[in-house]
Amino acid sequence: MYEKETVYKEDILDYFDALMVSTKGEFNDEISEFKNSINFRKVETYDLRTTEKIISAEITSLNSFQDAERVKAIFFLNNGKIVRSNIVTFDHEMHFDKHDDIIVSILNMDASTQIYTGRMTVYNAFQKLLMYNIYESGKLVENAMARIDAGANPTSGKTNGCTNWYLITTTYYSDGSTTTTTEYLYTSCSGGNCEEQASRGSKINCGGGPWTGGAGSPAGSNPSFPSLPANGDVYEFTNANGEYTKYQFDSQKGIWVVIERILPPITIILEPENYPFLMIQWPVHNQKVFGTDLFTYTYDGGSGNWNGEPTNVVISPDRPISNMTDYLKCFTSTQSATVTIYVDQPVEGSNDAYAITWGGAVVGHTFVSITQGSNRSVFGFYPSTDETSPTSPPEPSVMGDDSGEGFDASISITISGPILQQILQYVINYNATYDLDNYNCSDFGISVGNLAGLALPDSYGSWPGGGGSNPGALGQHIRSRSSSGNISVNKVGGNAPTNNRNCN
Predict the structure, then answer these.
(1) Total-model pTM
(2) Could you write out the DSSP letters of every residue in 144-196?
(3) Is 433:443 a contact under the CB 8 Å cutoff?
(4) Which portions of the sequence form the region Disordered (predicted)?
(5) Contact (CB, 8 A) for 244 and 50
(6) What backbone torsions phi and psi does residue 278 show, to the nearest 5 degrees?
(7) Spatial distance between the Cα atoms of 43 and 36, rounded to a whole number of angstroms
(8) pLDDT in tens, 180-235
(9) What is the pLDDT of residues 12-40, one digit of tens each?
């Protein structure tokens, strides 16, 4: 049921007043028309998947949108304050009355829950086009968005305080292919030279770009974390531009770590230096990008948002070892042996703790071999799942068969039978917990190497959200060493040998 007159009427009117002040009168006519078109008796509120709510109101009449089947106003309520707004129009041939459901599902990046055929178009409070989506039976078949002509440089196209804006339109076909077109919209300008620029062309907008308009004063720009949190507590925060961040408290580190981000288009436009890897001219729906912040971002064409989750940087072994005692049973403490520490660096010849490729994050691997006569076993320390990221908690560990795996550098040492016995006991009773920051594959390899007498250093390196021993730093240390006495150094790399066990 609609209320007789919404309790948010005064909040909405206050928002418009603040908007007029913030734009210094530049768009007073557009704002006044928008404000006067709202039917305050037909208003509903909805929770979003972020910490915000939206207020949806019917619009009775706006001159620019008289041909639309339905026109709605949406206001974003953040921490009890309206911080931005949009005008949304719908065009469809068949009867449809669940327009609010469409808006909410798209904002929640869950448009597949609605069966809709038609076009939804979104404008800012100044009636400037932001984006549109065309659906057929709930499936996105075309979407367009106002974007900067970014190219390879986030600031390209910006001259004398002016920025060129283009409508980037992507069409999705049933065979999975896409086509993209670019159409110039207008140029937005700011600063004292705007009037001069406007006199030179009809497509000059002196009020700034489409995504930067329509926001009121911020409702708190920084998170306010709860005091005395317990391990695993979750805190959610959405800033005035709609950027959502989910945090989880890590009591071991004593910090709140980010476990999810939702970045709206305005964040990418206003903060290109923070997300240069998302400055993509033609992103397509469900496109994935691996960020240098070790987050994996997925593009939602319906909303224009990038949804980021921590990148899984370490996976479980392809060949897990179920019984280390059996795996090492051919070795005896009555004879000498050779222990080798192998390092596969993320970037060969570099201290880098990780690297980002088109396929994801690469962190490398450290592993071990023991050779005694004709017997040889190659193995490494792993997490038991494929979901280890810089923000994930410690998890159960497992040993893996690394025979034949590639490496960039290695160091070997000949040891006595008694030392071998210590190493065998250490390996068989390996740490039951894999912790990326505190005990990972490199920590295991360093520990085995030092039991053998190699004097390997901690090899610390940092990554977003933490840091620890890593193959990059360890590999560079090995490269700095020279073969001497019973120690042999390989700086060329290659493939580890295969296993060979000649015992019953």
Answers:
(1) 0.83
(2) EEEEE--TTSTTTTEETTEEEEEEEEEEE-TTS-EEEEEEEEEEEE-STTHHH
(3) no
(4) 384-403, 467-504
(5) yes
(6) -105, 5
(7) 15
(8) 999 998 887 765 455 444 444 445 555 556 665 554 444 456 889 999 999 999 99
(9) 999 999 999 988 888 899 999 999 999 99
